[in-house]
Specification:
The chain has 160 residues and is of the alpha+beta class. It has six helices and four strands. The protein folds into two domains: 49 residues, Winged helix-like DNA-binding domain superfamily/Winged helix DNA-binding domain (Arc Repressor Mutant, subunit A); 72 residues, Alpha-Beta Plaits (2-Layer Sandwich). A four-stranded antiparallel sheet has the order 2-3-1-4.
Length: 160
């Protein structure tokens, strides 16, 4: 598969869309001094090439009452149970991210909860899944870095 070539205009479009996926193409066009049609065509090409994968909305979970974040490492009795356990984890809405991992844990999850008592209930639900040997939890004191742009800028600099 050929590598998709990005230019400075593509980079600037991506930069603005990462900040706000809902920014109108006309606003992007005005800022970059190009037509909205050009923005549309370029975004469509990046979408078709699989560089852009949909768009997302970021919620402020703190404002919704879910300010407690923890990471839970899950140890399985057997790695063959991974798919089964992930299917069960998928039914716990407070688990917002799950990764199959190598190293210490078989699965590593991010959970969001209202408070420590709620987090305990979520962790106990994870512990109760058939095939889970044990869990290990780390509480997040603060999310210090959550920057979607730095990597994109570095990748862009490597390409050019």
């Amino acid at each position: 598969m050929a590598k998709f070539k990005l230019d400075e205009i593509d980079h600037q479009i991506l930069d603005m869309l990462i900040d706000n996926t809902r920014v109108p193409f006309t606003d992007i066009a005005k800022k970059l001094l190009i037509s909205a049609g050009t923005v549309h065509v370029r975004v469509k090409k990046m979408d078709d090439a699989g560089i852009i994968k949909g768009s997302s909305l970021t919620l402020d979970y703190k404002k919704l009452g879910y300010s407690f974040i923890a990471y839970v490492g899950i140890f399985l009795q057997n790695t063959s149970q991974t798919k089964f356990v992930l299917e069960r984890i998928n039914h716990i809405p407070f688990v917002t991210v799950a990764h199959i991992t190598t190293g210490k844990f078989n699965i590593f999850c991010k959970i969001r909860a209202k408070n420590t008592a709620h987090a305990k209930d979520i962790i106990f639900r994870l512990d109760d899944i058939e095939g889970v040997y044990r869990t290990e939890t780390m509480i997040s004191l603060e999310e210090s870095i959550n920057d979607k742009k730095r990597l994109m800028h570095d990748i862009f600099n490597e390409l050019n």
